[in-house]
Amino acid sequence: xxPSAGFTASEVSPEPAPDSKALLEMVQLLVTKGITEIPxxxxxxxxxxxxxxxxxxxxxDLAQLHIPVIDMTGLDGENKDQVIADIAKACEEWGFFQVLxxxxxxxxxRDMRQLxxxxxxxxxxxxxxxxxKPGTSVxxxxxxxxxxxxxxxxxxxxxxxxxEQKRTEPCMPPKPERFSLxxxxxxxxxxxxxxxxxxxxxxxLGLEPYTLGEHINSKTVGLxxxxxxxxxxxxxxxxxxxxxxxxxxxxxxxxQDKTPGLEIEEDGQWILVPPIPDAFVVxxxxxLQIVSNGRYKSVMHRVLVNxxxxxxxxxxxxxxxxxxxxxxxxxxxxxxxxxxxxSFKFAEYIAGFYIKPLTGRRLIDSFxxxxx
Length: 372
Ligand SMILES: O=C(O)CCC(=O)C(=O)O
Ligand SMILES: [Fe+2]
Description:
The protein is α+β, with helices and mostly antiparallel strands. It has a single domain, classed as Jelly Rolls (Sandwich). About 30% of the residues lie in helices and about 20% in strands. The protein has 11 helices and 14 strands. It has helices spanning about 10, 20-25, 25-30, 80-95, 105-120, 125-130, 165-170, 180-205, 210-215, 285-290, 345-355, and strands at about 70, 95-100, 140, 155-160, 220-230, 240-245, 250-255, 260-265, 270, 280-285, 300-305, 310-320, 325, 345. The strands form 3 sheets. Strands 1-2-10-7-12-5-4-3 form an 8-stranded mixed β-sheet. Strands 6-11-8-9 form a 4-stranded antiparallel β-sheet, with no helix packed on it. Strand 1 (about 70), helix 4 and strand 2 (about 95-100) form a beta-alpha-beta unit. Helix 4 (about 80-95) crosses helix 8 and helix 5 (about 105-120) packs across helix 8. 2-oxoglutaric acid binds near residues 5 and 301.
């Protein structure tokens, strides 16, 4: 199992930062060389491969959707209670839902998508200006991988787009020139959405709207934004874009493009999260699973690729500061619902990746009070 993808990789990469040889193996470069057979290190063992690949462009039939779609305008109308109940159900049963009319302007989302394309169209030298530096948690390069894991078919740049770490280690690429301006506008809008979702999620738990925001201290939160690019793959059935993982965030707000690829695990089955224009995919991260004392699930997900169309996605990981204490909300605990997880500083969670990065066990389970 791969480490989870929120803070994770760059913040806590258990291996030294990638060297120039690793950068030569960026997927995009392999594809440009016109390879027809993929290098061994990308080949998944048979048991991990997908049995069904999605056609590169899927028309999304809303009636067929499994994962709930929430129109957030409903939160301002007379159906508010029903919408809140729908979100609660989505968090309990799926750990994933999609939101429409979420307040982030579609034109800004399109600008970010365009920015990704422009970044990945730069020459290797221009992209490498921002390669991950030893001891830092952000930049361009291969993440989530050690010499013993199978490599993911994805290229990625991760930045701090909001909060204290944006000021101390922003890692904004100098090109495209408008990068930091667009990211600043987008991250403000996404953080605003996350803070609103905190209020809504507090209500779905039967609590006062400010409860979750207070617990993770909204004033010190940060946002990590990744730009993922999954180039077309000559042998898509042998690889994964990203291996199964759960996110270390509080919540993740993901912008995917029109090419399907994201799947979530439900009762041992992999279920597609179909692309919906202008929607965000919201998923519960490990930290909210802990804070909700296991009521809301941080669900495993993975990404498939195809052989004709590149896929871009932009996950935004909503994070507390390293000093924030994470623990099950006391308001939710009772004799019949005792705490499942111990209390810890978020910094300790991150450090877990350095100690036993790839034991095959989920990091979240090591914070159980009664480990199974
Ligand atoms: O590309 C996607 O749709 C999902 C990416 C993801 O799960 C991650 O970066 O953590
Ligand atoms: Fe993820």
